[in-house]
Write a structure and sequence with these properties.
With 87 residues, the protein is an alpha+beta fold. The protein has two helices and four strands.
């Protein structure tokens, strides 16, 4: 899926998505107490922690993995315009 198709599938344009990000950044400058994303735990084990945050058009999912002395982290966008994903 190319980038424009991804944004079309979640009901916003690339420009709208980036404008929203910039708007949030500007409001963070004004209000330092505002938390821009609320992270929700979706999976935890000894070596892996996964969290999600609701954003326009879906979710941002963050995974942290620790194995011995190696640390891995990934972050992906999961399209879900109606936020139907239940844990």
């Amino acid at each position: 899926m190319i980038e424009s198709e991804l944004f079309d599938s979640v009901g916003c344009t690339i420009d709208e998505f980036y404008r929203e990000i910039l708007k949030n950044r500007e409001s963070e400058k004004v209000n330092k107490n505002k938390i821009p994303l609320e992270w929700e735990n979706i999976f935890s084990s000894v070596n892996i922690n996964s969290h999600r945050a609701k954003v326009i058009g879906g979710w941002i999912v963050n995974n942290n993995t620790v194995l011995y002395d190696h640390v891995g982290e990934s972050m992906v966008f999961v399209p879900d315009p109606e936020h139907l994903w239940e844990i």
